[in-house]
């Protein structure tokens, strides 16, 4: 069972120092940031003054300064139990104009670690001017965490056949999908019921105050854009300069998200095949359609005859599908590795490289240990935010429709939504978008983004009313800032550093 698709930004990309060129738009200037944000007042949430006034102690932690702070477990009962969050800060190289919070997505990605890679995730001019800050969301990474599944259980779940051919396979898939929620409930950790994006956004506002900033400046990627959109809905008067790259709409349901992703990943698979056929080490032959079909036939053969790897581990149809899909996010980095791994598996019957690629993407060590809890956190957040209310029969019909529109990945992704059916917890608050309530923000997308399709960014831009939408035309990539388009990177930098933005317009970049 593939399950839901993680939409975190899986690599940091490359840092380039760029001049503003190649974009065309009519610019306005957003309100200037205070020259010294630490001297400004820091608004709070009513009834939570004790959290906004807590003292934090920064300590050196190698590549950054680090600290912890507390937030309410349940914002509806702020005098009850507390959650401890971890925060890292890489100080500006020059005079700081404030903090730039960053989040790489997921849900389940570590913002704490992401900020420590500041040299690779923002340009030199941004590093010069901003303290780069990362907060691990509740339940994630170095903050108080959750764990629902053992390493062996995660292995078993991702190996389940997501395209069942028999009633027995279908029954096992349904049973295993329901096991995830049951395991989270059985863990007895009350935090699992309080990992919604609304609660994460409220935590971020406390973090904003504790670093001394009167407004929130944020670079959110992928799921990090859902945090950003939720923040500006909850705290519109505290919005500074917010860049949302690879936009995930907070108002879509699980089936809507899955359908769009399945269709876009099919597009990226064809793009991979086009690229592969131009290389000498490509295991595919013939036309693009023939190459795509060869990959599907390879996966189908694995259904009946998995390839044996090291230590008794097998490459199943489910694992191979997951591995291929996971390496369609970032063509510049992913395609050469995927091509080589597919060549070993398809032409030599050696699955080790393809399994290795998958392990790198899911934080699995060669000995079977998972080095973080991103899988558990992903389900906990996704199923709170986007519960699945459809019946098993309706999900089956959904998977069958996706198998037609997205023949390689659709059926597995369609069945994967079952993980959030009958989730034992429910979010306390659901958020919609109110237009024109905050300072203007910038939305960024690649035209061919498989995990967060460009149409999502365009739709959110319309709903916000005062956002500038920046599109990397012809871009095949998950997220766009610092991913290959000088125009996109320069546009984002001009907004972050100078407040230059054109609300309500679209900027097309090459």
Task: Furnish the topology, listing elements before pairings.
Elements: E1 28-29, H1 49-52, E2 59-60, E3 65-72, E4 82-90, E5 99-103, H2 111-116, H3 118-121, H4 124-129, E6 131-135, H5 151-159, H6 167-186, H7 197-210, E7 216-221, H8 223-234, E8 239-245, H9 254-277, H10 288-304, E9 307-308, E10 314-315, H11 317-326, H12 331-348, H13 352-361, H14 374-385, H15 392-405, H16 410-416, E11 442-448, H17 454-464, E12 468-476, H18 486-498, E13 500-501, E14 506-509
Parallel strand pairs: 5-6, 5-7, 7-8, 8-11, 11-12, 12-14
Antiparallel strand pairs: 1-13, 2-3, 3-4, 4-6, 9-10
Helix pairs in contact: 7-8, 9-10, 10-11, 11-13, 12-13, 15-16
Mean pLDDT: 92
Helical region count? 18
So, CATH architecture of the largest domain?
3-Layer(aba) Sandwich
CATH topology title of the largest domain: Rossmann fold
Biggest sheet statistics: 10 strands, mixed
Distance between the termini: 37 Å
Strand order of the largest sheet: 2-3-4-6-5-7-8-11-12-14
Which stretches of 5+ consecutive residues score pLDDT under 50? Answer: 3-27, 34-41
Helix content: 40-55%
Question: In total, how many domains does the architecture comprise?
Answer: 2
Q: CATH homologous superfamily name of the largest domain?
A: Alpha/Beta hydrolase fold, catalytic domain
Integer-rounded radius of gyration: 22 Å
Beta-strand percent range: 5-15%
How many E-type strands? Answer: 14
